[in-house]
């Protein structure tokens, strides 16, 4: 028994020695194998224990040892970690999902099944012979199609307004959609006299659905061209917010790479040679022929209010309403936010101060004022010297309308500056991108203090592009303002909403439905931030200013509101 056990032990020892000798011989013939085994084992162990990243793959030209293969076969299958969405991405998704729910698909077979302004009914609730200033007037609207059938869903794009042309008076109405084909339109009767009532069907819900679907299809409606300059050589190349090309691209990053502007890289020129950009509209449409019929001029902005179209309003021995506190930043904006009377804007939520020339000059001393946005804000800097006569233009040697504009009062140490926002900026004229005005970056560059004021607007140039682009930019601006308030909480920031424009312009690209969605979204994004709001949308409805660049009277009212916020 004992001898058998001893013989087995000796046999095992002998076999072990043979195996060790064979291994030594193999290593002496190819020493890289040992290193490969060790590397593979270490790599696998590190990856398996940390669980933070995918194991590096073995190069294709390197043979796998049996040990390495076994480890890979027995190891659990591993995938690259999914990058968690950022807080901003989650906010963008939430806003888009909410909008998708509010603007559901509304397919239709024929124009006759869509909302008809003629067949719909508008009924004044609790009608009276005479109304009093300050009263609410309500109209119940029932939407019907061209066959007179009651609509069973909402979503029509309506615009409600009261006006007294002889008094240069106007105000918007508030529309409540019950999502069943009925709407409640509420008007506040701000002034006395004969008042006209108007409810326009801008687009039926089927058209709204088509516009929303088409808008989010892509970036092809607007083409960008970039001008590259290298010494005496110049070249124009294709650029855009999204480029599908197999050739080398120049990428211009914004907001830490969250937003990118692309250009095809010219031969023999660096990407830094880009100096100017311009745009052209493309004949691209994502609407069907049937849907395009909804946007014929005869089908846009059709009056729904029949009789009575006028009501009589008297003062009824009421005192003029006390609007309480002075207008200041952070005040909540109601709907409607005000009205025009004798051409002057009167706010509904606060008491405005009518500043004279001397008070304006005193207010502006040592002020640094920055206007960041589109050409509707450029109108401000063009109008400003009419209310602050000490401000004089300062030539920075730029060219064209879209150069940086500066006003100076050297004696009062006052600076007013306008700078266009960055891409997308739509114009057939070349504009410089050397001193690019990406608004979040511009805000980050400002030190800020109690004598610094910033006015911001964006919207008109974003209408032809997917809604995500506008939402992302608006959130980036909000984040930059929050950073500004951390270092300089006394800085005054004012948001000017976009205004309405021509009703019969290219609806798919620039229609007011796109602007209205952006207007509501912008107010939602900034609602709990301590900024001032100038409701240009409401102002231009009240003034019946259906043009991209409102008249001087409207610009004067906007600047008066701006001065009330900062003075």
Question: What is shown here, in short?
Answer:
This protein is of the alpha+beta class and 567 residues long. It has 14 helices and 25 strands. 30% of the residues lie in helices and 25% in strands.
Oligomer: single chain
**Uncertain spans:** 31-77
Q: Indicate the percent of residues in helices.
A: 25-40%
Question: How does the helix and strand content classify structurally?
Answer: alpha+beta
Give the number of DSSP strands.
25
* Number of contiguous helices: 14
* Percentage of residues in DSSP E strands: 25-35%
The whole-number mean of residue pLDDT values reads 88
| Overall 3D form | globular
Protein name: NXPE family member 1
InterPro entries: Ig-like_fold, Ig_E-set, NXPE4_C, NXPH/NXPE
Organism: Microtus ochrogaster
Pfam family, one: Neurexophilin
Describe this structure as you would to a colleague:
This protein has 567 residues and is of the alpha+beta class. It contains 14 helices and 25 strands. The protein has helices at residues 2-29, 32-50, 66-74, 87-102, 205-215, 289-292, 357-364, 375-383, 439-444, 467-487, 507-510, 512-525, 536-542, 552-566, and strands at 115-124, 131-132, 136-145, 157-164, 169-172, 174-177, 182-188, 193-203, 222-230, 233-240, 249-254, 259-264, 274-281, 302-303, 310-314, 338-341, 344-347, 368-373, 392-393, 405-409, 414-420, 431-432, 452-456, 492-496, 532-534. A 7-stranded mixed β-sheet has the order 19-20-21-18-23-24-25, with helices on one face. β11 (249-254) and β12 (259-264) form a beta hairpin. α10 (467-487) packs parallel to α12.
């Amino acid at each position: 028994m004992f001898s058998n056990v001893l013989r087995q032990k000796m046999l095992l020892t002998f076999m072990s020695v043979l195996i060790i000798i064979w291994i030594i011989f193999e290593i002496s013939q190819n020493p890289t194998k040992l290193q490969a085994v060790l590397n593979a084992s270490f790599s696998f162990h590190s990856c398996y224990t940390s669980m933070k990243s995918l194991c590096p793959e073995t190069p294709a030209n390197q043979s796998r040892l049996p040990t390495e293969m076994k480890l890979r076969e027995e190891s659990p299958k591993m995938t690259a970690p999914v990058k968690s969405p950022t807080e901003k991405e989650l906010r963008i998704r939430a806003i888009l999902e909410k909008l998708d729910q509010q603007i559901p698909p509304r397919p239709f077979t024929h124009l006759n099944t869509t909302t008809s302004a003629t067949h719909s009914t508008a009924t004044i609730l609790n009608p009276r012979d005479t109304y009093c200033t300050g009263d609410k007037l309500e109209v119940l609207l029932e939407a019907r199609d061209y066959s007179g059938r009651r609509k069973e869903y909402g979503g029509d794009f309506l615009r409600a307004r009261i006006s007294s042309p002889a008094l240069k008076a106007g105000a918007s109405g508030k529309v409540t959609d019950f999502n069943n084909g009925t709407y409640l339109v509420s008007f506040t009767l701000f002034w006395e006299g004969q008042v006209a009532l108007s409810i326009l069907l801008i687009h039926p819900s089927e058209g709204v659905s088509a516009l929303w679907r088409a808008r989010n299809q892509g970036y092809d409606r607007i083409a960008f061209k970039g001008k590259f300059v290298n010494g005496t050589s110049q070249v124009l190349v294709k650029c855009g917010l999204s480029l599908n090309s197999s050739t080398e691209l120049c990428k211009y990053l914004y907001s830490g790479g969250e937003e990118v502007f692309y250009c095809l890289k010219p031969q023999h020129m660096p990407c830094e040679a880009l100096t100017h950009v311009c745009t052209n509209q493309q004949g691209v449409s994502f609407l069907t022929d049937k849907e395009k019929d909804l946007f014929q001029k005869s089908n846009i902005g059709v009056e729904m209010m029949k009789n009575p179209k006028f009501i009589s309003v008297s003062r009824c021995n009421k005192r003029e309403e006390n609007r309480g506190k002075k207008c200041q930043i952070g005040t909540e904006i109601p709907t409607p936010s005000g009205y025009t009377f004798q051409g002057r804007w009167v706010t509904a939520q606060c008491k405005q101060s009518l500043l004279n020339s001397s008070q304006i000059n005193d207010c502006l001393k040592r002020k640094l004022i920055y206007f960041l946005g589109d050409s509707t804000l450029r109108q401000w800097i063009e109008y400003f010297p009419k209310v602050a006569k000490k401000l004089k233009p300062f030539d920075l040697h730029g060219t064209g309308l879209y150069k940086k504009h500066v006003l100076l009062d050297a004696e009062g140490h006052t600076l007013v500056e306008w700078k266009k926002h960055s891409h997308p900026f739509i114009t057939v004229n070349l504009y410089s991108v050397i001193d690019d005005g990406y608004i979040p970056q511009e805000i980050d560059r400002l030190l800020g203090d109690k004598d610094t004021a910033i006015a911001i607007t964006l919207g008109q140039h974003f209408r032809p592009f997917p809604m995500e682009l506008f939402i992302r930019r608006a959130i980036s601006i909000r984040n930059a303002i929050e950073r500004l308030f951390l270092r300089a909480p006394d800085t005054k920031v004012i948001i000017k909403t976009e205004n309405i424009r021509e009703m019969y312009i290219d609806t798919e690209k620039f229609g007011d439905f796109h602007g209205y969605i952006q207007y509501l979204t912008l107010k939602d994004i900034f609602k709990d931030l301590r900024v001032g709001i100038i409701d240009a949308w409401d102002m231009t409805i009240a003034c019946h200013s259906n043009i991209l660049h409102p008249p001087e009277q409207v610009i004067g009212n906007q600047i008066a509101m701006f001065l009330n916020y900062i003075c």
